[in-house]
Amino acid sequence: MKKVITLILCLVLVLGTMASAFAIDPRDTSAKTSLTVSFAPEDTPAEGVEFRLYYVANVDEFCNMTVAAPFSSYPIDLSKPTADTYRELEALITGYIAADNLSANYTAVTDENGVVTFADIPAGLYFVAGDNFEANRKIYEPTGSLVCLPNRLEDESWQYDVTVNPKFESRPDSEPVEISVLKVWDDNNSDKRPESVTVVLYENGDTYDTVTLSKDNNWQYKWEGLYAKSQWSIAEKDIPDGYTATYESQNYRVVITNTKKTTPPPGPPDIPQTGLLWWPVPILAGAGLLLFIIGWSKNMKTKRKNGKA
Fold first, then answer.
1. What pTM does this model have?
2. Residue 16 has pLDDT above 70, yes or no
3. What is the secondary structure of 10-51 as a DSSP string?
4. Which structural domains are found in the chain, ordered by start?
């Protein structure tokens, strides 16, 4: 009997531990969120800088994302968000905003401490963009970034009030800017590759120049003597059919990779993941352990009855 009691106590302990381990804290879908942007490059508070929020995707209670309009008309894939895909999307979205002159959902200006707060805004995935800041004889250009509101922490809880410190690039305010673009193809030298593509350079959101990239110029181009205090961005115009585009931008060198779409091999249909249901796990495990105890107890009784215990 003592062994049975001990096993039952073990069952209770295991169920409690498993229930705690598999507990899910779904997001409160009725709660509002806030985003605070603190911009102080090189410890210099950036006062009077306009920051803009663009609503990119809906986020459900389990952090699954669905791209929202107007970004849903672009080839944006958020099915498996990672740090790498976020970096690629940030450069891509920067180009989309400039190319189609997309309007921000929220706009505000930093205070004397370089801080601005967007309060009581709906949950979702946002793209944060800001204007240049001039100080210390330098131009500080904040890098556009994606931020999920609320933010899911490592302990699976939710942070509804999020603060970000934008990364930035800096350059002397008196030196002209050089920007280069390189087109890369990832298509196994497909014969469907177009002979040329068009790339647009934007100054403060307005078209500055349009160039054609092809074999004739080794699929690359460089602009020189650009005004240092302007904000510059690049976007490929009319991505070729059957291709997707990714962007990598660093130190005013932009690499645009066009990857040929592939047809996945036939296989079992994908099962949509809408938040894993972990709650049955401890129940099923506990039921199995309970059945084991019942079977073991009956076996012991049978042995005692037969004089074998």
1. 0.74
2. no
3. HHHHHHHHHHHHT------TT--EEEEEE--GGG---TT-EE
4. 32-172 (2.60.40.10), 176-262 (2.60.40.1140)
